[in-house]
């Protein structure tokens, strides 16, 4: 019997499909995109459900809004204020609702925080934060993860040791005295714009937020990469404009940007914000490449004997270029010129607004606490008004306490976000009661779970710092048990510079800057609240800034009365 093959009625040869596919390629392409989108949405929804389900027993606030969860409260005030309220109410570990049906864990538990700090490959910066950092700064130390981070950190570390930072002290003193002279000129100039009540003879109403940002920009330019911004003299500077433009565009959190943060895949949408950002980045990169080329040439000239009598410049960029040439580094461990160039925007971003904001809030507290200011002035004037020795400043115990207290109470970035890369149990020092009444001694989370670390809350936690933890009182340092060694911070047992392998590489420079700046400021001027008593309010843009109520449009400002010390 011969077998005859009977074609199945619905079988179509592949070649028959080609013309159909060709004539319908747009429809097929769109169909494939929709299918991929649907798959991603279902997969995403399933993962979110799993994450939410796993943490559903944690205490925390109910949703305020069907889409924005509890974020409406956060946007109305600051993440630090809202988070602190929840932590006071629900205990040290809780869960709240973010946008799009997702949830976040918030924990001030010191064991949990230390566990996360020590495992930066498991607890990474969330996708949305990485998107913004990459857009604004490229792939510098603060943006990269895993092996790239370890490779960069190894080369950068030697540029930020105490010995290297101490060599920058003379330059920081120079800038601090330039600021003093600029303040003295302002005070001596006629005040035509302040309300008459604030025109007090022998004083001048000055925006100390602006001056804090100017002097710290000048310092980071010179200390970071030997570059003069001349911000204190207010001259035009191309890199400064590009940097300010990039930060402004990057943090322009309009609804499309918010959508892109929540759903990072949407980052490919071209927007005016992205266009502006790219233009600013192109300028910053052009100047950055030029700086790297010049510094590299200096090093090569020095090592090859062309410029025998010169020394390596003392700025971080020169020092890291030198470290990058170390013979014990393998070729795959060295940074490329592009890697080095990206560190310029990173150092600017990470080292400028943070220190500037700490200086500004420090002045705010000193103006409100004249007793502390007078005590500090009495101490620093023992060194006269022209000291240039950082060793001498290190001997001043009250200056040390004041700087600790400023950095404790005014953590510029008081809430950190992380995202788990795998399922993990986070141990807790303090067990908490779940919604079902059972005790929880470790938090189980799924991969992709968002976790917030309220470093600012821990810095102000009465359990750690005493009942007056939310007040400005430098004398708390030195009380028995304070600071507490239980707090896992890299500096001063506070969490301002965090801890673990991703701690703030610039913390020593920042402490040096603040000591020098407050020595010069308080030794030469008295800072007072304005007689018109404006109301100040905190705003948040990753960093907590100060605005005047009713003048929010003017942006961050801290107007204070400044009085030269000779007139006191
Ligand atoms: C008061 C001043 C400062 C504060 C409060 C501060 C705070 C921080 C914090 C909280 C982080 C961790 C961010 C995260 O992982 O999410 C960090 C990282 C970093 N900071 Fe600072 N910082 C300050 C000053 C500086 C200065 C002066 C520099 C540079 C000269 C600097 C450079 C960096 C860099 C490069 C990183 C990334 C480190 C890494 O991921 O390995 N910071 N800083």
TrEMBL record:
Keywords: Heme, Iron, Metal-binding, Monooxygenase, Oxidoreductase. Heme binds at residue 504. Pathway: Secondary metabolite biosynthesis. The keyword Cytoplasm does not apply. It comes from the Eukaryota. GO terms for molecular function: heme binding; iron ion binding; monooxygenase activity; oxidoreductase activity, acting on paired donors, with incorporation or reduction of molecular oxygen. Its cofactor is heme. The keyword Oxidoreductase applies. Belongs to the cytochrome P450 family. This is Cytochrome P450-dit2. It comes from Apiotrichum porosum.
């Amino acid at each position: 019997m011969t077998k005859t093959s009977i074609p199945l009625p619905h079988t179509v040869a592949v070649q028959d499909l080609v013309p159909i596919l060709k004539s319908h390629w747009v429809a097929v392409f769109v169909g494939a995109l929709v299918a991929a989108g649907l798959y991603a949405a279902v997969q995403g929804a399933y993962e979110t459900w799993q994450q939410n389900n796993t943490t559903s027993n944690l205490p925390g606030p109910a949703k305020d809004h069907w889409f924005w969860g509890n974020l409406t409260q956060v946007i109305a005030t600051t993440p630090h204020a809202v988070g602190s309220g929840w932590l006071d109410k629900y205990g040290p570990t809780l869960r709240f609702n973010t946008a799009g049906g997702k949830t976040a864990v918030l924990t001030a538990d010191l064991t949990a925080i230390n566990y996360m700090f020590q495992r930066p490959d498991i607890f990474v910066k969330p996708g949305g934060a990485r998107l913004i950092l990459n857009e604004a700064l490229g792939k510098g130390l603060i943006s990269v993860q895993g092996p790239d981070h370890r490779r960069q950190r190894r080369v950068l570390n030697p540029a930020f040791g105490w010995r290297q930072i101490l060599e920058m002290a003379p330059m920081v003193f120079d800038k601090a005295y330039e600021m003093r002279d600029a303040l003295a000129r302002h005070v001596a100039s006629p005040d035509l714009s302040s309300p008459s009540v604030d025109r007090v003879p022998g004083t001048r109403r000055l925006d100390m937020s602006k001056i804090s940002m100017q002097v710290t920009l000048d310092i980071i330019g010179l200390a970071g990469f030997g570059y003069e911004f001349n911000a204190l003299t207010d001259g035009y500077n191309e890199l400064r404009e590009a940097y300010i433009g990039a930060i402004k565009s990057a943090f322009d959190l309009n609804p499309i940007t918010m959508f892109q943060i929540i759903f990072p895949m949407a980052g490919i949408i071209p927007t005016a914000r992205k266009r502006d950002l790219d233009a600013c980045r192109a300028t910053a990169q052009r100047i950055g490449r030029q700086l790297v080329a010049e510094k590299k040439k200096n090093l090569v000239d020095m090592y090859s004997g062309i410029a025998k009598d010169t020394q390596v410049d003392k700025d971080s960029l020169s020092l890291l270029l030198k470290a990058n040439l170390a013979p014990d580094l393998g070729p795959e461990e060295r940074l490329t010129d592009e890697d080095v160039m990206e560190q310029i925007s990173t150092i600017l971003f990470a080292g400028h607004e943070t220190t500037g904001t700490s200086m500004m809030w420090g002045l705010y507290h000193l103006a409100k606490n004249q007793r502390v200011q007078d005590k500090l002035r009495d101490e620093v004037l023992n060194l006269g008004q022209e000291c240039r020795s950082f060793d001498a400043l290190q001997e001043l115990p009250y200056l040390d306490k004041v700087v600790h207290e400023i950095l404790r109470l005014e953590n510029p970035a008081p809430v950190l976000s992380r995202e788990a890369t795998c399922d993990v149990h986070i141990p807790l020092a303090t067990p908490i009661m779940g919604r079902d009444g059972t005790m929880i001694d470790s938090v189980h989370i799924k991969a992709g779970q968002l976790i917030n670390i309220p470093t600012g809350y821990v810095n102000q936690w009465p359990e750690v710092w005493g009942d007056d933890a939310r007040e400005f009182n430098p004398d708390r340092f030195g009380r028995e048990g304070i600071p507490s060694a239980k707090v896992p911070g890299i500096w001063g047992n506070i969490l301002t510079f965090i801890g673990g392998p991703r701690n703030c590489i610039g913390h020593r420079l920042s402490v040096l800057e603040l000591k020098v700046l407050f020595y010069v400021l308080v030794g030469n001027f008295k800072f007072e609240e304005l007689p018109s008593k404006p109301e100040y309010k905190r705003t948040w843009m990753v960093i907590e800034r100060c605005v005047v109520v009713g003048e929010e449009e003017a942006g961050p400002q801290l107007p204070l009365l400044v009085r030269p010390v000779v007139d006191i």
